[in-house]
Amino acid sequence: FGPLHAVRGEILHFLADPAAHGARAVAHFPDGLLVIRDGRVAECGPAAELLPKLSAALPVTDYRGKLILPGFVDTHIHYAQTDIIASYGEQLLAWLEKYTFPTERRFADPEHAAAVAEFFCDELLKNGTTTALAFATVHPASVDALFGAARERRMRLIAGKVLMDRNCPDFLRDTAETGYMESKALIERWHGCERLLYAVTPRFAPTSTPAQMQLAGQLFAEHPGVYLQSHVAENRGEIEWVAQLYPKARSYLDVYDGFGQLGARAVYAHCIWLDDEDRRRMADTGTAMSFCPTSNLFLGSGLFDPGRARELGVRVGIGTDVGAGTSFSMLQTLGEAYKVLQLGGQKLSAESAFHLATLGGAHSLDLDGLIGNFLPGKEADFVVLDLQATPLLARRMASCETLSERLFVLMMLGDDRCVAATHVLGAPAYRAGPAAR
Ligand code: GUN
Ligand code: FE
């Protein structure tokens, strides 16, 4: 892959949110060409229009018969929970005690952290995900391991050390001061290093003292461009607990607000049990929501209301939330999102779903200037999908007439078997072997 090359195939990307802008938001080239210069998009359009203008010597990777989309953006995931995906029987608080804390304890060992980080990044790429906003653990070295693995793969990744100084086992507890100092050192080491960005990461309000919450807000304010990630309004027991711990707060979200933890580049997972005042406050501050359908169903947490978030103008991305989430696959996650909306009497069109997984997710992370679609100058991260990857898919696709129908079947039936290749900054970072089928 020299400085200038191209890929040819069916290309789909979004210029805006199709729910607001309709067909004008969708760019679709049945025989398209994506021209890449130094890892960035140079041009994207119909092959018949672009090829005659380009040198015959331009190397072109032929993906005809496959669908090329911008790399998926997973706006909420825990790399350290890779080994507890699919753990039986509990809702949030008991699940944390029984499965999560014991598995996160193992990240005190940097070798374990490095091994899981490598697996995790490979698994993201195998699923077509090229950007994620990820929790590490309370151990600073767990962040080094994750950023190290992502840097080797040249991925755009946002991550941070968990801040947790109460209501957790001793072996996972930091203090307000050590959490602050360790986060600061990690920001200096990693934020803005190549494609890596740092997120201040208070786990959730119950596991941080007010002193730690205050310092987390301070870290966020002191480092322009740094992110903040946490969880809010996921589970009813959790919400009651927060009300006891913070009796003066108007709501769970208001706890974070009181400590300066809302704003652009602040991203909250779940956001199920919010009221409209909370949603308005998120919209007004530019705070984003991460919708985690497989996790919300798996832990029995509740049904996210994307319609209301949209009406009130809140930015929304989609997250797998592995290990409470049950799949690394954004296709599977979109399929479950559709079902969550169905249960709430809403609809998720296939176009809106794929927008959410690409440009919408990038926008929710304030990264839509860099990734999310194929406008010239964007970083050329993309996934190459095989819509005939299984006999059932091939059979079902054969009876689809429109692009919308094919995309819908893809998100309902597709998974990592559909990912033929994933490219990062133009270059292949994952290619399916025959074993992937
Ligand atoms: N709330 C606090 N910590 C967690 C976590 O690890 N996973 C989920 N789903 N919710 C949380
Ligand atoms: Fe989570």
Automatic annotation (TrEMBL):
<protein>
    <recommendedName>
        <fullName>Guanine deaminase</fullName>
        <ecNumber>3.5.4.3</ecNumber>
    </recommendedName>
</protein>
<keyword id="KW-0479">Metal-binding</keyword>
<dbReference type="Pfam" id="PF01979">
    <property type="entry name" value="Amidohydro_1"/>
</dbReference>
<keyword id="KW-0378">Hydrolase</keyword>
<keyword id="KW-0862">Zinc</keyword>
<feature type="domain" description="Amidohydrolase-related">
    <location>
        <begin position="68"/>
        <end position="419"/>
    </location>
</feature>
<dbReference type="GO" id="GO:0008892">
    <property type="term" value="F:guanine deaminase activity"/>
</dbReference>
<dbReference type="InterPro" id="IPR051607">
    <property type="entry name" value="Metallo-dep_hydrolases"/>
</dbReference>
<dbReference type="InterPro" id="IPR006680">
    <property type="entry name" value="Amidohydro-rel"/>
</dbReference>
<dbReference type="InterPro" id="IPR011059">
    <property type="entry name" value="Metal-dep_hydrolase_composite"/>
</dbReference>
<dbReference type="InterPro" id="IPR032466">
    <property type="entry name" value="Metal_Hydrolase"/>
</dbReference>
<comment type="similarity">
    <text>Belongs to the metallo-dependent hydrolases superfamily. ATZ/TRZ family.</text>
</comment>
<comment type="pathway">
    <text>Purine metabolism; guanine degradation; xanthine from guanine: step 1/1.</text>
</comment>
<dbReference type="InterPro" id="IPR014311">
    <property type="entry name" value="Guanine_deaminase"/>
</dbReference>
<comment type="function">
    <text>Catalyzes the hydrolytic deamination of guanine, producing xanthine and ammonia.</text>
</comment>
